[in-house]
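dude i think i finally got it to work??
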Amino acid sequence: MRALLSCAVLIELVVATPLLAADFPLASCKGWNGTLVTRAGTNSRTAAIEGIITQANVQEYCERDPGGETIAYGGKLTIDQCVSMYLKTNGKDTFRSTANCEDGALSFYPSRGKARRVEFPLLQDSDKSCASGMPPLIEQFKLLCPKAAQALKLMDSE
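look at this
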């Protein structure tokens, strides 16, 4: 009986892991995404996600190298040096976003810098460019409030 219970718990952990390995949208133009570690309250007044930076996030960034830092793109670093450098400075970063799906409000709390708050629907003339930082906030809202995002026509299929 104990072995059966242990197997059930192990299966539950393995099944839950892929959901939590999803991207935590951070990348606006040139940056990296984080990795989603928790999601709770989807489609509610208290929806929340939390994320971290992993080696895989930084690896993807360094291989893409939008800043031209690696040898392959004219810089001085190998990909391994790039990964090591960013993990040293950003490897402990955590992120959190909360949303009130009924009110269409999202708050993003980065490791550093100011929190950002946005309300949906966005105004007609809102800057949604990469430079504005809005694309990852829209993606976070879609993760937290898929029903509201669909009603607001934020989903790709709309």
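Confidence is low (pLDDT under 50) at residues 1-19.
im so relieved honestly
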